[in-house]
């Protein structure tokens, strides 16, 4: 029996706020990569790295992949020529701007594909942060798939191509990214592969949660503390009893 697969997508798009504090933390990962962030919060098996003082701008990294945290003092801004991106946040931001893909989606995809391991190589030969197959990397002009900048630029460009191909249908684009466009054409939609279906559900679920959290934070930011307390009380009263 053919397995029917449906996903409801509610995507709210907001611009990612920039890091503006005078100092920041840097998470040093086991793979030698680093992620600059504002603060961190351990949450069981993962640690949330917040990019700004906001409850909705964060990425979750497996705690056991973090070696240590360092404090990085940021010098005053100077009129210097642009320098190549050095942190994952900067790499993703550059790829997002160049390919017109939401940076949150790119970051979530990296987490799902490689768990932020720039040296990851799958049994099928997919390589790097966004797990590019050799033939795909070659077509995209990515010479070294283990180079984080080239990999994220190539992977984001590939995702942009898939979004254009499927008229911004994120479900189909993710299915093609995971299982290949030929399988999406063969099954006229999401292939009946548990791995692909789980992958799509995770990426879209994480993406929607982040966007909804940001919308909620943005909404609450314009309300007084008394209004927020009253709202919470009303929610508590309206909530159905178990």
Q: How would you concisely characterize the structure shown here?
A:
The chain has 242 residues and is α+β, with helices and mostly antiparallel strands. Helices cover 45% and strands 14% of the residues.
Quote the beta fraction: 5-15%
Strand order of the largest sheet: 2-1-6
CATH class of the domain at 85-219: Mainly Alpha
Which blocks of ≥5 consecutive residues have pLDDT under 50?
A: 1-22, 231-242
Q: Name the helix and strand elements from N-terminus to C-terminus, one letter apiece.
A: EEEEEEHHHHHHHH
Form type: globular
**Cα-to-Cα separation, first versus last residue:** 37 Å
Number of strands: 6
The assigned structural class equals alpha+beta
- Largest sheet geometry: 3 strands, antiparallel
Radius of gyration (Å): 20 Å
Q: Might you state the CATH topology name of the domain at 85-219?
A: Lysozyme
The average pLDDT score comes to: 81
Helical content (DSSP H or I, runs of 4+) = 40-55%
CATH architecture of the domain at 85-219: Orthogonal Bundle
């Amino acid at each position: 029996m053919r397995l029917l697969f449906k996903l409801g997508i509610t995507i709210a798009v907001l611009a990612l706020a920039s890091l503006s504090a005078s100092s920041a933390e840097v998470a040093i990962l086991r793979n030698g990569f680093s992620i600059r962030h504002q603060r961190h919060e351990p949450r069981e098996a993962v640690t949330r790295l917040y990019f700004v003082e906001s409850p909705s701008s964060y990425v979750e990294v497996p705690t056991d992949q973090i070696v240590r945290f360092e404090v990085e003092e940021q010098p005053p801004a100077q009129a210097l020529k642009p320098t190549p991106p050095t942190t994952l946040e900067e790499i993703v931001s550059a790829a997002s701007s160049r390919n017109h893909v939401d940076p949150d989606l790119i970051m979530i995809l990296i987490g799902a594909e490689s768990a932020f391991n720039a040296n990851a190589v799958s049994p099928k030969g997919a390589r790097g942060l966004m797990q590019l197959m050799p033939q795909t990397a070659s077509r995209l002009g990515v010479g070294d798939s283990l180079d984080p900048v080239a990999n994220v630029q190539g992977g984001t460009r590939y995702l942009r191509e898939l979004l254009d191909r499927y008229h911004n249908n994120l479900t189909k684009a993710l299915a093609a990214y995971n299982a290949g466009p030929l399988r999406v054409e063969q099954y006229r939609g999401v292939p009946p592969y548990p791995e692909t279906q789980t992958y799509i559900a995770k990426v879209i679920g994480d993406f929607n949660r982040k966007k909804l959290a940001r919308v909620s934070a943005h909404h609450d930011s314009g309300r007084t503390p008394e209004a927020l307390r009253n709202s919470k009380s009303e929610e508590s009263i309206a909530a159905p009893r178990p």
